[in-house]
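Hi, here's the filled form for the chain we discussed.

Project: internal
Contact: R.S.
Residues: 371
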Amino acid sequence: MTRKIGLSAQGRAFLSTLRIGQGEAELERLGLDPEAIGTLLAAGLLEEQGTTMPPADYQDTFGGWRSQKGMLIDDERTLGFDRAIRAQVGPGDRVVDVGTGSGILAMMAARAGADKVYALEVTAMADWAERLAARNGLANMEVVRGDAALFDAGAPVDVLIGEFAGMWFLEEWRHYAAFCQVRDRWLKPQGRVIPSAARLFLSAVDSRKLHHERGWGFFDQPVYGFDFSEVLTSGAHRPARYILSAEWKSIVATQEIARFDFKSGNERDYQFTTETSFLYQASGMFHGFIGHFTLDMAPGQTMSTSCGARETCWHQSYFPMPAIPVPAGQAITARLRSFLTADTEVLKFGITVAGPGQDLNTQAEHVFDLE
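And the returned structure, exactly as it came back:
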């Protein structure tokens, strides 16, 4: 019988880590010596990548029509960008769309009268963007393949467009880093950016349904008559961040935790630490946080992913936490930390929570993967 070879547990961990470009020291730590690295590079199985290259699975996801259709079919998102482009782009403008995907935003800029639109795309969707631009007669739109950080506009541009919002905004920080590099090299001093700013929010949530189905509550009670509580107490199970459509009635209190300026900021702004409190006007339970964000699209134009706004493809993010009872007039205090891991540069979000009468500094931090 022919021997079959597959991935070991170590191999699966290696591939999982390598979804994001790593330094040679990290590859050696994972078991590849310099000779093996050189062999894999020569064979085309590895390649050198810039710091703004998106994770491999992001490239696979956004390089196909399933995700592209999901964004296109969201008219709240897509028409919001169209309104902003119509307000900000006009005849004679030179425009760059960083991460064009299907090309829809670049096509909108071309339709709005731009003299020249550069549509930058690193995935295989670049071929489709080019085909669709030609099919629609947009001779003023040029698709540029490859890492946007290496783009050469030849001359300053008037408008920079980027749809770099992850599900809770922060996830696509590498996309934003590429946007910033293009902006800093090629945008005119009085140039415009779409979107121009964002604000990030968390809401304390009281929802037994979320707590049971997505959070810590399921293993707190007997499972079909059996005690599974050790799954939680042993640390074997830590609820992850979930993307879902939250119910407005479950929201107790909301706080803005960060804001970003896309004309002058950069991707380092996505790493922050802050503390805030969430006041309970009536007694209830704390079951974690619901996250959403808003985008400033153009003067007088905003877009929100709140569960109180029209539904978008971003939905909301649920961060499950252990349940805490909160009396009326008392508050939940939280320390919130967005950070990159030192070894693999993966973005994570840490939440430390204290209930009434608890010391925040003695509570455990719960860390969630954002990418």
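Let me know if anything looks off before we file it.
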